[in-house]
């Protein structure tokens, strides 16, 4: 039985679409029709998204102060707002959920103008620009790492955690087993398309500085940009170190489950997946991230004891080699970090977010919902 329609709005990147996708599956399992509003970048993810229909609405961001560029952006946003109002009037959704990115602005503005219940989900510990612009207008703000009970919008914030993909939940069932003695030590390194470039140089060099006995234990999985792949592969070959190098891994959740240590950036999805699976990590926040959100995400996991954080500017090959040496020689410490990371995880984030969406759709006061226990109890 169709209980009604819920619209999800997200920018066309994986960071915005993956949590929306997880929520979409959960809402459909509960009997709701799901529609997605996004931009043309989302086409590569469209085949997997659980939507009855995907709608492309014009949108843009003010990326330049050039008067002509600003006028074009304003015109595009006006067109997007008109298209979104027409779409919402036709769909008559019970609620509209925004996941960040400038394509969420027209549908969320249109929905609030039409009196449709709305909420936004913010993955990071620092609110993104689109969500910040919408925060005053929506009924609730679901947070992955937002501080609860603080800030201008404290009364609206509910920390649900970040929805993670089903393979991550499956990987979370695999216990962490430390590498001891001379047993193989599995190292996983990744950083996204931009963030991986630094690791392509730093990690092979750091491994070359390890004592031979430690280097012989290493089995490496490393994400590298297409243009860096051959160079990184060659570096590991010269070191006689087993390594699987690729621009993208479709089975990353499985590789994380097998990892004894992870070196990576600290995007919200990454930190959430590490904590749900429960793996120790060295987090290197991407230094050029807007609003330094990655540093704030990393701090949340470090505070729980599940990770170390090192600024990229401080991470010389010698420093990284010393960190690897310490990790490989201290299995008990890594075991404790894995347990602390898992303790910080929120495996019920998708269900908790769906509960909040339904509460907003039913026009229940957010204060009433917040009185209930988020984990384990439906609102």
TrEMBL record:
Keyword Cell division recorded: yes
Enzyme Commission identifier(s): 2.4.1.227
Membrane topology, as annotated: Peripheral membrane protein
Glycosyl transferase family 28 C-terminal domain: residues covered: 187-351
Annotated CDD domains: GT28_MurG
Main location: membrane
Boundaries of every Glycosyltransferase family 28 N-terminal domain copy: 6-141
Pathway(s) served: Cell wall biogenesis; peptidoglycan biosynthesis
Catalytic reactions of this protein: di-trans,octa-cis-undecaprenyl diphospho-N-acetyl-alpha-D-muramoyl-L-alanyl-D-glutamyl-meso-2,6-diaminopimeloyl-D-alanyl-D-alanine + UDP-N-acetyl-alpha-D-glucosamine = di-trans,octa-cis-undecaprenyl diphospho-[N-acetyl-alpha-D-glucosaminyl-(1->4)]-N-acetyl-alpha-D-muramoyl-L-alanyl-D-glutamyl-meso-2,6-diaminopimeloyl-D-alanyl-D-alanine + UDP + H(+)
Domain of life: Bacteria
Keyword Cell cycle in annotation: yes
MF-aspect GO terms: undecaprenyldiphospho-muramoylpentapeptide beta-N-acetylglucosaminyltransferase activity
GO biological process: carbohydrate metabolic process; cell division; cell wall organization; peptidoglycan biosynthetic process; regulation of cell shape
Residues that, per the record, bind UDP-N-acetyl-alpha-D-glucosamine: 13-15, 124, 165, 193, 294
Keywords: Cell cycle, Cell division, Cell membrane, Cell shape, Cell wall biogenesis/degradation, Glycosyltransferase, Membrane, Peptidoglycan synthesis, Transferase
UniProt-annotated location(s): Cell membrane
Cellular component per GO, a single term: plasma membrane
InterPro entries per UniProt: GlcNAc_MurG, Glyco_trans_28_C, GlycoTrans_28_N
Family: Belongs to the glycosyltransferase 28 family. MurG subfamily.
PANTHER family in UniProt: GLYCOSYLTRANSFERASE, UDP-N-ACETYLGLUCOSAMINE--N-ACETYLMURAMYL-(PENTAPEPTIDE) PYROPHOSPHORYL-UNDECAPRENOL N-ACETYLGLUCOSAMINE TRANSFERASE 1
Annotated function: Cell wall formation. Catalyzes the transfer of a GlcNAc subunit on undecaprenyl-pyrophosphoryl-MurNAc-pentapeptide (lipid intermediate I) to form undecaprenyl-pyrophosphoryl-MurNAc-(pentapeptide)GlcNAc (lipid intermediate II).
Protein name according to UniProt: UDP-N-acetylglucosamine--N-acetylmuramyl-(pentapeptide) pyrophosphoryl-undecaprenol N-acetylglucosamine transferase
Originating gene: murG
